[in-house]
Design goal:
- The complex is a heterodimer of chains A (174) and B (164).
- With 174 residues, chain A is an all-beta fold.
- Helix content of chain A is 0%, strand content 48%.
- In chain A, strands 1-12-3-8-9-10-5-6 form an eight-stranded antiparallel beta sheet, with no helix packed on it. Chain A has a four-stranded antiparallel beta sheet with strand order 2-11-4-7, with no helix packed on it.
- Chain B has 164 residues and is an all-beta fold.
- Chain B is globular, with a radius of gyration of 15 Å.
- In chain B, 43% of the residues are buried.
- Classes of the chains: A mainly beta (174), B mainly beta (164).
- At the A-B interface, strand 5, strand 6, strand 9 and strand 10 of A face strand 1, strand 3, strand 5, strand 8 and strand 9 of B.
Chain lengths: 174, 164
């Protein structure tokens, strides 16, 4: 029997950091995709945004999210690819946030809805010190997903730091 | 080390046509430890997609929800209900539900369902449901509240996970 849950590729950020993490040439041979991320940003503040885009397009992305910070729970929508938060330079050292993205039927002919859980914990009550985000994401395109790109929203000076990792898995339903 | 695969597809149903309001999986083997289900769905109308076990339609279910609609964050719950609500099948956008039923085949404990429901057009939620039965789960029915139907192409998949 073919393997159900299979690693497609892993990206590990080396010294010097990386402005983006990207998976390209994703085969259409799986049913769903799962992306597991451990990441931190070099941004000189507490926390940074993490965004996800598909097929080199920043268009047609919408998200509906539920966020808790340890003191406040809020719900919001975005249209900039933002799915949650990762630790940055002002947060507890050696601490990376965790993200799980699940994309059903990524190669199908319907619009692509996906699930993202994005968390960061710093043992700190400071503003921006911890977030849990449940995200319902949508890429309003019917084409198959062949590439995935992760970036931090803050641009220059906000690279993913060394030791950030992302692994893409393919899941087959038969 | 487990014999065979740890994570194994059990069955998939892809909705055909335009009048399907129920998808059932029966004869589920008790040879796994946990079950994961993945639903990728589009509805003909905005109606609630629901789940129940072993054809039990009595008020033996309850659930607690943590949800956000894009402006309001809230937590709700329902007791003594006839099914567990997964979320709304949206008539405009694709929605998905990913859930797990751990230790589904034992005959000692009540059965807990943990799931994430994602409707980018309306709500994002985490839900926990309880089926107050010690019976092993051998059947799972996904259904949509009347008068809705799922659009052709909607998929429902069960995976089995073996601990050993």
């Amino acid at each position: 029997m073919a393997t159900t849950y299979e690693a497609i590729a892993t990206v590990t950020v080396g010294s010097g950091g990386a402005a983006e993490i990207e998976f390209t040439s994703i085969p259409a041979t799986f049913t769903d995709l799962s992306l597991l991320i451990s990441a931190r940003s070099e941004r000189a503040q507490s926390s940074d945004n993490i965004d996800i885009f598909f097929n080199a397009s920043t268009a047609d992305r919408t998200d509906r999210a539920l966020r808790g910070s340890g003191t406040v729970a809020v719900s919001y929508t975005t249209s900039n690819g933002h799915i949650g938060y990762i630790p940055a330079a002002s947060d507890t050292a050696n601490t990376f946030g965790s993200t799980l993205v699940y994309i059903p039927n990524y190669a199908g002919s319907a619009n692509k809805s996906f699930s993202a859980d994005v968390v960061m914990e710093n043992n700190s009550a400071a503003n921006g010190g911890a977030f849990m985000v449940l995200d319902a994401g949508l890429w309003s395109q019917t084409t198959a997903i062949t590439s995935i790109k992760l970036i931090t929203t803050s641009g220059a000076g906000s690279d993913f730091v060394q030791h950030s990792t992302a692994t893409l898995y393919g899941i087959k339903n038969s | 080390m487990p014999a065979g695969l740890t994570y194994e597809p059990i069955a998939t149903t892809t909705v055909a046509g335009s009048s399907t309001a129920s998808v059932s999986f029966t004869g589920i083997s008790g040879s796994y430890t946990d079950i994961v289900f993945v639903c990728d769905i589009d509805g003909s109308t905005d109606d609630s997609t629901r789940i129940r076990f072993n054809s039990d339609s009595a008020t033996n279910y309850s659930q607690t929800n943590l949800r956000g609609d894009g402006s309001t964050a809230e937590s709700t719950r329902s007791s003594s209900i006839a099914q567990i609500s997964l979320g709304v099948a949206d008539s405009t956008n694709q929605t998905n539900v990913i859930g797990s039923i751990n230790n589904y085949s034992n005959s000692t404990t009540y059965k807990t369902v943990l799931l994430r429901a994602n409707n980018p057009a309306e709500v994002v939620a985490a839900r926990v449901g309880l089926w107050r039965s010690t019976s092993a789960i051998t059947g799972i029915e996904f259904f949509i509240a009347s008068p809705g139907n799922w659009v052709a192409g909607s998929t429902f998949t069960l995976y089995g996970i073996k601990a050993a």
